[in-house]
C-alpha cells in the first residue's frame, strides 16, 4: 500500500520509522510519502492560512497550497475525454471532527486499498472548496476519530495509519492475533494473564491453569460478555 500525508508538521510522522509499521516500510509492504504543505506556498512567509470569510474566530487554511500539494500527488487533472478509462485513483481522507466516525470496519476497508492520501488540516479547517474540488476527481472522505476536539489532523491520522497498517497482510506476524481482538468479533477482549501465577496477592483465575480448553473458552467468552455489558453495552447484539 502507498500512503501519502500532507501536513505542516512533517516531523510528526517520524515515529512511523518505529515498530511494526517501520518494519513494514523497510520490507516494502507500506510505502510512505510525507509532504510539507509549505513547500507548495509561493510567498516569502510560506503562508498557509488566512481569516475566514464571514468572520469568526481562528484561521482557515488557504486553498491554493492544498490544491498544488494534492495535484503533485494525484497528478494534474485528467482531460475530461480520458476520465472514463482512467484507473481508480487514491482515496483522499480529510481528518475532521465533522467527519464520519473511524471504526475497525473502516480500517479493514481502507487496508484493502492500494493508495491512501491524508490531508492534515490545522486551525479551524481547510477551505471547503479543496474538499469539493477533489471530490470531482475521485473518492473523498471526511473521517473523525471520535467525539472530542484535537488541534489538528496529525494525531488522528497517526491513529488511522496504525489501525489500517496492521491489517495489511504480512504487517502483523501472527494473523491469528488479529482475530480475537476487541471490535473484530463485536465484543471487547477478555483479560489476559502471564507468569507468575500469583503476584502481589492476586492470583490468576484458576480455570486458566486447568488445561481444560473447553472451560477456558467458556470463561473467556463470559468475561467478554460481562465486560462489554458493563462498559460498552452499545456493542451488544440486539437481544433475541
Ligand atoms: Cl480527525 N481531527 C480533529 N482536529 N479533531 C478530531 C478528529 C479529527 N477526530 C476527533 N477529533
TrEMBL record:
Its main location: cytoplasm. The keyword Heme does not apply. One of its GO terms (molecular function) is tRNA (guanine(37)-N1)-methyltransferase activity. Its EC number is 2.1.1.228. One of its GO terms (cellular component) is cytosol. It is found in: Cytoplasm. The keyword Methyltransferase applies. It holds the Pfam family tRNA_m1G_MT. Residues 1-236 form the tRNA methyltransferase TRMD/TRM10-type domain. Signal peptide: none annotated. InterPro entries: Alpha/beta_knot_MTases, tRNA_m1G_MeTrfase_C_sf, tRNA_m1G_MeTrfase_TrmD, tRNA_m1G_MTases_N, tRNA_MeTrfase_TRMD/TRM10. It catalyses: guanosine(37) in tRNA + S-adenosyl-L-methionine = N(1)-methylguanosine(37) in tRNA + S-adenosyl-L-homocysteine + H(+). Keywords: Cytoplasm, Methyltransferase, S-adenosyl-L-methionine, Transferase, tRNA processing. GO terms for biological process: tRNA N1-guanine methylation. S-adenosyl-L-methionine binds at residues 121, 145-150. Homodimer. Belongs to the RNA methyltransferase TrmD family. Specifically methylates guanosine-37 in various tRNAs. This is tRNA (guanine-N(1)-)-methyltransferase.
